[in-house]
Amino acid sequence: MIPHHWIAHHRDEDGELLGYLRPVGDGFEPVTVFGHALAEPSDEDDAAAVLDAVGLSYLADRWLLTVPDRAEPIAVQVVEADADTVRVKNVGYESGLDRHFTLPVPTDRLQPER
User: Element (H or E) spanning 47, and its range?
Assistant: First the structure.
């Protein structure tokens, strides 16, 4: 579950949740709806600007999921995300692995595919 002290950031035009501002020291770190950092901590306005600029585009990106008992992560895509869980699908079609994974948020098991 997203910690209560994180600040939800919504798009002005339609109120859509874009992510959160995670308090870090004297600044704020912009994070996705599932808790992945999008940039280094900065002041609140700059962190909010990162979320505004990125929008929800990260939901369409491919991510790498760390899977227990597997040396290499697998390629996944976000199917849905909320304050409690993020659900991803296996787009690498790795045999012997589940097609979908549901993770508690925030999670450190997802990294952007680069």
Answer: helix 44-54
Query: Are 36 and 25 in a shared domain?
Result: yes
- Picking from 58, 75, 93, the residue at the C-terminal end of a domain is 58
- The CA distance from 4 to 11, in Å, is 19
Residue-range definition of the domain harbouring residue 79: 59-112
Helix (H) or strand (E) holding 38: none
Neighbouring C-beta atoms of residue 7, cutoff 10 Å? 13
Per-residue confidence (pLDDT) for residue 96, from 0 to 100? 67
Largest CA distance in the chain: 46
Tens of pLDDT along 3-56? 999 999 999 999 999 999 999 999 999 999 999 999 999 999 999 999 999 999
Can you point out the beta strands (E) in 66-109? 74-81, 85-90, 100-104
Residue 64, H or E segment: strand 62-65
Task: Tell whether 2 is covered by a domain.
Answer: no
pLDDT of 94 above 70: no
